[in-house]
Amino acid sequence: MRIDLNVDVKHLTRVEGHGNIYVRIRDGVVEEARWEVVETPRFFEVMLKGKHYTSAGILTARICGICSIGHALASIRTTEAAFGVVVPERARRIRLLAKHGETLQSHSLHLLFLATPDFLGLPSAIPLMTIAPDVFALAGRLKGLANRMSDLFAGRTTHPTSLLVGGVGRMPPLKEMQQIRDELHKSLDDLRVATEIVQKFKIPDFTRETEFVSLKGERDYPWIGGNLLSTDGVDKPEREYLAMTNEYVIDHSTSKWAKLSRESFAVGALARFNNNHRFLHPEAWDVAHAVGLRPVSHNPFHHNLAQLVEMVHVTHESIRLIDELIDLGPGTLAVPVEPRAGEGMGAVEVPRGILYHHYVFDDDGRVEKANCVIPTTQNNANISHDIEELARTYANTSTTNEELSLIAEMLVRAYDPCISCSVH
Amino acid sequence: MRYLGIEPVKPRVGIFDFSGCEGCQLQLLNKEESLGAFLSALEIVHFREGSSEASDDYDIAFIDGCVTREDEVVRLKKIRSIAKLVVAMGSCASFGGVLRHRNYIDLDAANREVYGDKPKETGKTRAIHEVVKVDVTIPGCPVSKTQVERIVQHLVLGVPFHDVVYPVCVECKQKFNTCMFEKGTLCLGPITRGGCGAPCPTGGLGCWGCRGATVDPNLKEFKDLALKRGFSEAEIDERLAFFGGFEGITCASI
Amino acid sequence: MSVRIHSYDVNREFTMGHPVDYTRRSDLQNVDHVFKAEITNTVNLTEHEKLFHIRILDPTERDRFHFHPGQFVMVVLPGYGEVPISISSSNSQRGHIELCIRKAGLVTDVLHRAAPGSHIGLRGPFGTSFPVERMRGKDVLLIAGGLGIAPLRAPIFYITERLGDYGKVSILYGARTPKDLLFDYQYEAWRRIYNVHLDIIVQEPDETWTGKVGMITALLEGMEIDPDNTFAIVCGPPVMFKFVCARLQEMGIAMQNMFVSLERRMHCGMGKCCRCNVGSTYTCLDGPVFDYWSVINQKEAI
Amino acid sequence: MLYKTITKSDFEHLIDFILEQNEIIAPRKVGEKPDGTPIHQFLPIEAFSEMDLDYSKTEYSAKTYFLPFRENLSTWSFGDGGWKQDIQYRQKPRAIIGLHACDIHALLKLDKVMLKGPFPSPYYKARRENTVIIGMDHEPCGSGFCASLGTDILTHGFDLFLTDIGDRYFVAVDSDRGFRILSQVPLAEVTDEDRRRYVRARAAISEKQTIKVHTRNLPTLLDLTFNSAVWEKWGSKCLSCGACAMVCPTCYCYGVKERVCMDLASASKVKQLHSCNLVDFAEVAGGHNFRPTREHRLKYRYYHQHRGFAEAYDEPMCVGCNRCGDTCLAGINPPDVIADLEQENP
Ligand SMILES: Cc1cc2nc3c(=O)[nH]c(=O)nc-3n(C[C@H](O)[C@H](O)[C@H](O)COP(=O)(O)OP(=O)(O)OC[C@H]3O[C@@H](n4cnc5c(N)ncnc54)[C@H](O)[C@@H]3O)c2cc1C
Ligand code: SF4
Ligand code: SF4
Ligand code: SF4
């Protein structure tokens, strides 16, 4: 049988930013299969030049509407590294809670609003409202709680307002912290229901040997700073991030591509899980077990599962952190910052993987040079290679254009790409 | 609210993204307590970030992001020709937002710096109203969902919407905050349009003016008081330029 | 040991459970209560002005609702807002009022779209009134410019219903164009049935207009009045009543015997929101009806 | 009025007793300015140790506990082609501790507007009646000019009022409710020594009040200076930001807006404090603004405080706390503005 398949998805939906999928199969042979990023370049790194250190985090937060808290934190961490600032205990916890708020918010959005419709055969979460109102309500509850948590610890869900160089801008009111903690407790029930929903997902049986890169946990599941680790055994300190990412420019994409030991690698929830599963909260580990996620998984669709596992882990960790914060009581939230010439870099695990910021400052604390390496940038090449492999897998089956298109879309969506972010 | 015999209309809505971080669109999926009602009040026929369905038949276009490339101009003009009402959503759409900074850098050099010998197509940043006519503007970086909801209510009920005209200080004071200036931080609150709920002074950042100038701002006094408190002209100018909402206003021009 | 502060129930202050009556100051519970009323009918007067016939629904509330000519009500459209509107009908009709409303903004726009039969809300009546009782036995000059005829209609009804009690009654009415003239269907009645002197003038005539042309003050030229025995009620935009009152003053009428109705922004009608403050007084409590002496004595009144 | 004394440790017990069943609002230190001056606010407390009674002036007034920045006046529910109205004004009993004389005067002035007029406000009344006021004498705050307005001395308007006379508090009791609360701890009759100490304490406070503002002629003066250049001088500085009115203990102007639920099934009529300095304060439909410039608006604020209110209630509305002056970024403050007005018409 002669098989010709064409997939030409212009501006993939239910993802952040603009990307295209392009597949040509002639006579069962994959002629071309790739992932293209067509987002407009914004040149944040160039815009950063000359900016005062106080505005760097505010500007870079605008790189991405989903992981703005992560960008702000990476920027602040970078700046603090350059100036040698050590932030107070309370601020560290508040920041991590802000980070967790973002992780929960982003994962629930992606998993339940953007990816779930695929597995239920729906075009979006909107019909979910009538077809499965309980799922819609559950998704809303989880995301709503995550948003309120971000509001409380970061000042605002999108584009945080209380994360400052030197610490944080305010101590969340005690009553509100207690309330969020209690709600987090209750949300574990919702997560159990979510687990049941995810268990029913028909995950395509597709694997491709991949190198996974994440921060390296020492005692905890890692989120902010630390060493860099790959499943292929690369282990480097944070500041050697360039050797870990190796960005390069290609023709058909406005985003750069990246590679490490192989021609591409993956970052994100699955990478973190693969590298650091032993630090997971036992209940999160149980969930991994329940949905059939085992380390090291090379099935990119398992990103979705890893996100669920992380949601459970982060919920538990947040409860613990809030309790610690309440015990600490009021006190210093920020230290004075003396800008000085220097260089700093910071790595933060944002929902989609490791985010690196790297600045050089002049004497007045103005940015002279900046570099940001975004998780999706690191994933792009891997996505493209996955699509190629996917095309090859389906080239000689009785798949239709629509089916291949859908499964390719699902694959890209599984990475939860933040496309505009990758072209920054 | 049908008691007057006025039937709320369910407008067909398209949501479109241009250059930006898409944070504003994302706000549309926030505020879960009223998300269902929000989505039911509208017939969303085009929303790439949220849905795979797409249609070219809509009454209202919500636009986020600004215009930086020629293909965007074409797309925007097509949207304008279809939509009866165009809503610019967010600071990027309203004034260019942070991407306005691109207009102060050498784009070719930037292109070379980032992409080396494979430069990508790009151009100056333009707000939506600089390309097509805009009917309603909702500034904010990001927009506040509460405000978007309110505008949607007005559209659904067919009554005009008036944005608040007081500066951020009013809402900041209502949050019991100590003024940022008292803490030694610059804040554009006194000259920026309120309506956001003052999240930035409340968080400790100070207002960066993302909602643009308020009605009849007292720029002269603002400049004087900021200088008197030790902030430099450069700092004030940088702040005023940050979100593009004070385009053309600098210490020298005040 | 512990202290329990006893709670105080504000509702204790009124036990009678009677319907709202704004003249009773102890009626706390009902301060923000609105009467439900029905739009029974609407009359298109011009492109922008409509007359609304409104009936209070609850029979007891209807019975108690009583106003004086010149007072206003807050018209409440739940979910949209509320606006102060002068009552434009006779106060001898119990629980039934007419409001002449111009399409001017959000709430009035919506009101113009409302279907007859709709239930709206009313609060009030509020404010001062024209001292029509004091005017008994005297000549009365009723002068309106534009929409000013709306608040003027209530005293016109009051006086024409008691013509024998008053001296000479004249209505002078000016509008910008003939199309803007309101209540034209009533002119014949005023002239023929009540025998009042009605004089109308427009500023910008069209080809069909055969009447007088000019400013409203022109109607006062050559008019014979007995200044010591004449009261005047003047309603219209500030520039209009400023000129008219100045002219009347020249004709010898005491400032205290001329009355005008002021308009300000209002958010409560109860002397609290301060939005209607003029100088040192509240338009909603001390006004909207003021004698001209008070008006020129208030800063920023005109 | 009844006078008693109690020991300071008994006062602490008293607070604990009240806290057991009721909410307490008290001055709390919330931070410091860069120069080290503490910032205080009236906030709910959970323990005696959280309050700081040795404060000079809170940044915001306690007004917000009686006239909140935002409050729901009625809730509408729609259905069956009609609507229903629901009005709520419940207030759980509570106590405010540590109000100074000027702040209590401010409440007395608000009472005149909110309770004594033809349309008393049930919302305000519920809060006022359910709040026990335990006031406290304190040294002058530094920038206030209360003595010039007679608001440094208090004869009523509280349940209990405390003056520090060394190891104990001299307590004026002005209500049965106050007396019952006070009776929970051992009371002592006022001795001659207590009386002497009280008089000395009061005298010391009065002596420290050095800022004098000539307010006696203000009503006439404000009429006479209505077109004075003084208003242009200060008005041109005004940011029209409303901060002064927000912190002022007596400013009560507001605006009303409808807030509709997204499903259009209900709505509420929400009152939000406004300020006469805000640009749209006196704007009417069609866009006409009765006070189009900053000068007009700033002048009106003073005119209302010292002229309009005085005419209506026989006393100025301002209590001389100078919170407005402290908070104003442009440095507009009553002592300077009033001094300028006097210069105009010596
Ligand atoms: C005592 C009095 C009597 C009036 N009588 C009449 C009348 O008989 N017929 C008539 O057509 N109009 C009358 N008006 C004017 C009418 O109240 C305004 O046209 C109306 O408030 C406009 O409201 P809106 O919501 O349509 O407009 P918007 O401009 O959308 O107004 C929004 C809000 O602002 C306030 N507001 C705006 N303009 C005014 C104003 N001029 N006065 C008071 N509040 C305002 C209202 O609270 C309103 O809810 C009277 C005004 C007053 C003060
Ligand atoms: S912090 Fe900013 S917004 Fe708040 S009062 Fe001060 S100047 Fe105004
Ligand atoms: S406080 Fe200022 S910067 Fe922050 S949201 Fe409001 S207008 Fe924007
Ligand atoms: S001094 Fe200012 S803040 Fe204090 S009462 Fe007077 S006007 Fe209000």
Describe it:
The complex is a heterotetramer of chains A (424), B (254), C (302) and D (346). By secondary structure, chain B is an alpha/beta fold. Helix content of chain B is 32%, strand content 9%. Chain B has ten helices and five strands; from the N terminus they run E-H-H-E-E-H-E-H-H-E-H-H-H-H-H. Chain B has helices at 23-27, 35-41, 70-82, 91-95, 107-115, 145-157, 168-173, 199-203, 219-228, 233-241; strands spanning 12-17, 43-47, 60-64, 85-89, 136-138. Chain B is globular and about 55 Å long. Chain C is globular and about 85 Å long. Chain C starts with 34 loop residues before the first strand and ends in a 5-residue tail after the last helix. With 346 residues, chain D is an alpha/beta fold. Chain D has twelve helices and eleven strands. Chain D has helices at 8-21, 101-114, 122-129, 146-149, 176-182, 192-208, 218-224, 229-235, 243-247, 294-313, 323-327, 334-344, and strands at residues 2-7, 23-32, 38-45, 70-79, 82-86, 94-99, 131-136, 160-164, 168-173, 254-260, 266-273. A seven-stranded mixed β-sheet of chain D has the order 1-9-8-7-6-2-3. Chains B and C meet through loops of B and helix 2 of C. Bound molecules: flavin-adenine dinucleotide and iron/sulfur cluster (3 copies). The site of flavin-adenine dinucleotide has 25 residues of chain C, from strand 4, strand 5, helix 2 and helix 3.
How many β-strand stretches of chain C? Answer: 15
Poorly predicted residue ranges of chain A = none
Average pLDDT of chain A, rounded to a whole number, is 90
Rg of chain C (C-alpha, Å) = 21 Å
What is the average per-residue confidence, as pLDDT of chain C, rounded to a whole number? 84
